[in-house]
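User: I'm writing a short methods note and want a consistent example. For Thioredoxin, I'll paste the sequence; you return only the structure tokens, no commentary, since I'll be parsing the reply automatically.
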Amino acid sequence: MADSLKLVCLECGSTNRVPEARLGAGPKCGTCGAKLNDGKVRPLDLKTLQKSAQADDLPLLVDFWAPWCGPCRMMAPQFAQAAQALAPGARLAKIDTQDHPDASARFNIRGIPALILFQNGREVARLAGARPAADIEAFVRSKAKLPA
Ligand SMILES: [Zn+2]
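Assistant:
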């Protein structure tokens, strides 16, 4: 099973195994049926974020944001555009630091928006401040390893 990838469902938190050859075929979560890597930005809680950051074999980019943050709201459509561009080889998600202040503490977030890229169970890189979609996409492609 060397060519099967572990992906935590960003909706329900279940761990799924997806053959690498089926990554582009719209794989769904075996537990809840949500699409695993359809290029949509999904909201996370801290538990799902930590599980996914630990277990995922695909790069995971998380936007730490809050509703009161103007630059965060301005970046949201850019982030969504980058998510589409990077699917199915990388996943983008977001966490509301107002609802989940424990996430800011856990990841030592000093200002938002802040992007953290995870792969192979560890933090790979960070990007601070609001960025256009092209910058977000280039950041992930340069720092993470996407499947061919
Ligand atoms: Zn699920």
